[in-house]
Amino acid sequence: MNILETSRLRLREFTLDDAPFLVSLMNSDSWMEFIGNTAVHTIDHAEQYIVKGLQQSYTSQGFGLWLIEKKELCEPIGMCGLLRREALDYIDIGFALLPEFQGKGYAIEITASTMIFGKYILGIEQIAAITKSNNLRSIALLKKLGFSYQKNIKLKADGEELQLYL
Length: 166
Prior knowledge:
Elements: E1 2-5, E2 9-12, H1 19-26, H2 29-34, H3 43-61, E3 65-70, E4 75-84, E5 91-97, H4 106-121, E6 127-131, H5 136-144, E7 149-153, E8 162-165
Parallel strand pairs: 5-6
Antiparallel strand pairs: 1-2, 2-3, 3-4, 4-5, 6-8, 7-8
């Protein structure tokens, strides 16, 4: 199911056919550095994550992380979406692109559209963002989107410190 389209991109729900792409994305160097090891290392792991994580979120929350694809070739390039986390008072936006698609304006294009979708279609009044302090590209993008740094937080008591933006 398509969620939204921009001039170059489409955001849609993940399907089991996207498992190989998900393995590539979630094991890319930038994912491992800025998001961390999510234990999705095989097609089977990815299929379980799609069914038990992504698709379950679509059903229970009405939103989640969606696949970003270039419209012209229906080529998957990343993920973007909205997340409800127990440890966070706000719904937050998350995004990741394969390294070869970074720096081409895709992230700002899809995150800005996702913010509009969240606010005007889903009725989410306040969307947050979290990132590691060393993720300078993500921080620059968040500032372009109008976010401002609020404070450092931990999603888990023993977790690493992240920056919260509103």
